[in-house]
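ok posting inputs for the uridine-5'-diphosphate job
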Amino acid sequence: MEIKDKPCLAIVVPCYNEELVLEQTTEHLIAVLDNMNSVISSGSRILYVNDGSADSTWDIIERLHAVNKRIAGINLSGNCGHQNALIAGLSTALRFADYMVTIDADLQDDETVINDMVHLAQEGHDIVYGVRSSRATDTWFKRTTAQTFYRLMSRMGVKTVYNHADYRLMSRRSVEALLRYEERNLFLRGLVPLLGYRTAQVEYARKERQAGESKYPLTKMLSFAFDGITSFSMGLVHMVLWLGALFLLIATGITIWVIICIIQQKAITGWTSLILSIWFCSGCILISLGIVGEYIGKIYMETKHRPRYNIKDERL
Ligand code: UDP
Ligand code: MG
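and the output
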């Protein structure tokens, strides 16, 4: 009876080419599970999601699963991206777990606070965000770009939790709710706050990556940020509208000026200004079209309703 009453915890870990850190990560996470034996059920486990790694990540997961049944894994058929890998893991964990914690494979996020997350969940919080109290170990560049990103997001009206990445605990019902958001352009940090359940936060100091390298180089980070903004906010389109209005105003000013010149019979000198403005306006129109195109592209993707991932193997 006692065992049944204890909630089952799944630690969902997306892995893309993480062979260098997996063993170490497993040791740490198993220690976390062992320490919580009195509060969580014995069926609690780590669920690795191999996101189409090109290295031996899946072989390692299979090997770990063979020796310890607290280590489970699913193998996606290709690289579907971090956010989709998380969804794949969460939907799979829903089959057996009551609480799901998502954490990166590199353990930059302090895994020991999972304990606090579970306690907060038991107090009735459906979502517990892991929030970085300091970014001292991040490079100056990563820190600045990330902070600019959070500010930009909130300027654009997208609700995100400051300094929170994808390290969080979610209850069964909040995951079920999340899965009802069927969009393909996934930005979980924007979606989860929309769910509206009772939330809490735990703070931790972010560590350095244990081994291997970041899977988010600048280009991927920029496209992630752009995705986040265009998936959740019409801010960019509004900016284009305001820019268009400003241009009309300027054009009106120029027209008035030209009319005055004609009345005063002053020759309009030089074509430079005219040519310049043609080029400038054309540039702006093209940028605007590009942004509008981005939204249309997303509508297009949404209407396809493609599956987000396909699971190739399971070791549960
Ligand atoms: N990841 C993934 N698929 C990808 C890219 C990354 O599953 O296409 C995983 C990666 O293995 C890690 C997590 O997402 O567990 C976060 O990546 P990383 O630590 O490299 O990002 P950073 O902390 O540098 O932003
Ligand atoms: Mg990392």
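notes: The mean pLDDT is 88. The pocket of uridine-5'-diphosphate (ligand 1) is lined by residues 14-16, 18, 51, 79, 81-82, 85, 104-106, 108, 214-216 (CB under 6 Å).
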